[in-house]
Design goal:
With about 170 residues, the chain is an alpha+beta fold. It is about 25% helix and about 30% strand. The chain starts with a helix and ends in a 6-residue tail after the last helix.
């Protein structure tokens, strides 16, 4: 624990984190660094990256560490789904499976564009399904409108996925 405490103090020497805005600024002058200047860069996947002493951190994990004084135990989930929003009240330390329950968009391979919905080629209807613990897939029905199928999925998601913030 002493090593974590020492590293936490070192981070706080280098950086200032504002938990209300989720922004980081330099607290220590260095090469090309001015005290008070914002730090970090936005990655193409929407997350913030910050380099301290040639060590890269993701902003949400660093925010958690600096605010609470300990590194996160699990995944850091952005409650509102905005990956660059590192305000402390928008972050929660949750197991990976619970973090996955907070998905807001369909995956790239989903052709209909709705989370929890796919097209049943045999019937030509949109099928809503949800995955439950134990890899159990629950069929929620088939619908002629993908938006209606998505609403059925969201209702089930709110009921069965404890990590859901939708």
């Amino acid at each position: 624990m002493k090593a974590v405490d020492n590293f936490t103090e070192e981070l706080r020497e280098w950086l200032h984190y504002d938990p209300g805005t989720g922004l980081f600024s330099w607290a220590k002058r260095g090469k090309k660094r001015t005290v008070g200047a914002r730090c970090g860069s936005l990655l193409s996947n929407g997350y913030t990256r910050i380099c301290v002493n040639q060590v890269e951190f993701l902003g949400h994990r660093l925010a958690w560490w600096m605010f609470w004084g300990v590194p996160p135990e699990f995944d850091i989930d952005h409650i509102n789904g905005v990956r660059s929003d590192n305000r402390i009240y928008n972050l929660r330390d949750v197991p990976h499976q619970m973090n996955r329950q907070n998905m807001r968009k369909a995956t790239a391979g989903n052709r209909c564009g709705f989370l929890g919905v796919d097209l049943n080629k045999k019937s030509g209807k949109f099928r809503a399904r949800i995955k439950l613990p134990g890899d159990i897939v629950m069929n929620l029905g088939e619908f002629s409108d993908p938006a209606v199928a998505h609403e059925a999925y969201l209702a089930a998601k709110r009921e069965f996925h404890v990590g859901c913030t939708l």
